[in-house]
Structure formats: C-alpha cells, structure tokens
Amino acid sequence: MSDTITVTGNIATAPSQITTPSGAVITKFRIASTQRRRDAATGEWIDGHVNWFTVCAYRHLGANAFASFRKGERVIVTGRLRIRKWENEDRHGTEAEIDADALGHDLMFGTSAFARVVRGAADTATGAGSTGDGDAWAPSDLPAEATSEADASSEAESVAVPF
Q1: N or C: which end of the chain has fewer CB within 10 A?
Q2: Which residues share a beta bridge with 30?
Q3: Which whole-number Å values give the CA distances from 148 to 5, 114, 118, 144, 145, in the listed order?
Q4: Which CATH superfamily includes the segment(s) 3-110?
Q5: Burial of 99 by CB count in 10 Å (0-12 exposed, 13-18 middle, 19+ buried)?
Q6: Which residues pair with 50 in a beta bridge?
Q7: Looking at residue 91, what is its pLDDT?
Q8: Residue 4: beta bridge partners?
Q9: What is the C-alpha R_g of the chain?
C-alpha cells in the first residue's frame, strides 16, 4: 500500500541526522498538526485534536531538510504514510510515519529564501552530494553576473489585498 498524504504542522523536535554505513543520509523529526476552528459564538480560534507524525527524509532531501529546518517552524510535508507498531521492554504503541517526497516551509506563517545546492560528483552515491554528471535537471554553472531581473531588484512593493 502506498498512501500519499500532505500534512502541515509545526516541527516539534529538533531535526536529527544519521548517515548509514553505506553513506546515505537520513533526517528525522516530529511534527504536530493541530486542527483549528473558529468558534462562531466568540469569534476566537480554538485548537482541536493534535496529530503527531514522525517525518523521515532520505538522501538529498534529508540533507537539505537538516540544513533548512529548526524546531518550532511551520512546514508542509508530502509523502507516503506508514503506520508502524513498536514495543520496548515495558511499553508498546503505534506510530504514524511519513516517508517524505517533498518538504518546505509553510509560507502562510513566514518567509523563506531558496538557495540552490550545487553538489559535487563524489557526493552522488551518498545522497548528500551531486545530482550527478549528465543529469538533465542539474543546475548549470552560471557566471555570477548572470542574474535575473527579479534578483537584481530586492525591494518589495506593498499592495492591498482585495479580500
């Protein structure tokens, strides 16, 4: 079964990163996704049920998530849901894990600045490095003076929202 879900929530634990013996990068963190609703009588927002998920990101995605995310930040996670049973000496339970396909900051609650990662060929196998030679989606090496007009103008303009 491969159930793809998208969840928004706050990062509840500092992201942790491990490197497997084969060199693959894995980043894990927990998110809390809280249902919110507006109370019609008071007009106040009320927190509802909280769902907890463990997010696992692998290779390039894991390395980028570890470099980008901090505890408390609001994120969007898309990936495959996996329900896993666990037990130790005196306890047992069930955990909802998401094997992440895509991750990002939730821009409804803040801003983010994208920085493309240029990876070296030696890093391809580990997942922490290059997108590889011959990769059609790999970024090209542009000279520093080759910037877009959007990059050249860093001033923001305020506009009224029509609703």
Answers
A1: C
A2: 54
A3: 35, 14, 18, 11, 9
A4: Nucleic acid-binding proteins (2.40.50.140)
A5: middle
A6: 34
A7: 94
A8: 80
A9: 20
**Tens digits of per-residue pLDDT, 5-64?**
999 999 999 999 999 999 999 999 999 999 988 999 999 999 999 999 999 999 999 999
Tell me which of 133 and 83 has the higher pLDDT: 83
Best CA proximity match to 8, nearest among 79, 95, 68 = 79
Could you tell me the pTM of the whole model? 0.70
52: nearest Cα among 104, 21, 11:
11
Q: For residue 119, which of 55, 67, 57 has the smallest C-alpha distance? A: 67
Give the Cα separation of 107 and 4 in Å (integer): 22
Structure tokens at 153: 């103008």
Beta bridge partners of 105: 75
Decide the pairing of beta strands 74-87 and 3-11: antiparallel
